[in-house]
Amino acid sequence: MSKSPKEFLSPKTLMPPAGYSHIAKVNHGTIVYLAGQVASDASGKLIGEGNFEAQAEQVFRNLKIAVEAAGGTMADIVKLNIYLVAEVDQAAVPKLRAVRDRYVNVEQPPASTLLVVSRLARPGWLIEIEAVAALAE
């Protein structure tokens, strides 16, 4: 019996994860690295200026476009690195989780890291997310 192309694990000996998996193990397939996506549309226009939830939605839309362009789906994402600018209030994080949960497999969520940074590359961007996907062969 062959192993699943990817496994999501959260050992009971680690802190219980909230909406993510501690470990995403890729057993076989193609690895795809997705560059950090921001809240800009195809023309480069900032979407949701000053609106964290609207920006998060645009970022996940862009991730979906990117992973599909590589031949995958959002369920193929095994790792998310999320960068929030320091001006985003910690109380807004549940809004991010609500948006994320509409896009990722909540039963087997990707391994994730959330970082707070002083700024992103362009003024006005509040969030940037990079991802790694594992596509089945």
Number of helices: 2
Mean pLDDT across residues? 94
- List the uncertain runs: none
| Percent range of helical residues | 10-25%
Structural class determined from secondary elements: alpha+beta
Number of strands: 6
Molecular shape = globular
Largest beta-sheet details: 4 strands, mixed
Distance between the termini: 16 Å
The topology string of helices and strands comes to EEEHEHEE
**Physical arrangement of strands within the biggest beta sheet:** 3-6-4-5
Beta strand %: 25-35%
Radius of gyration over all CA atoms, rounded: 15 Å
Description:
With 137 residues, the chain is α+β, with helices and mostly antiparallel strands. The chain is 21% helix and 30% strand. The protein is built from two helices and six strands. Helix 1 runs parallel beside helix 2. The chain is globular, with a radius of gyration of 15 Å.
Layout: helices, strands, pairs:
Elements: E1 6-9, E2 23-26, E3 30-37, H1 52-69, E4 77-85, H2 93-103, E5 111-117, E6 127-135
Parallel strand pairs: 4-5
Antiparallel strand pairs: 1-2, 3-6, 4-6
Question: What is the compact description of this entry?
Answer:
By secondary structure, this protein is α+β, with helices and mostly antiparallel strands. Helices cover 21% and strands 30% of the residues.
Keywords for this structure?
137 residues, alpha+beta, four-stranded mixed β-sheet, two-stranded antiparallel sheet, 21% helix, 30% strand, globular
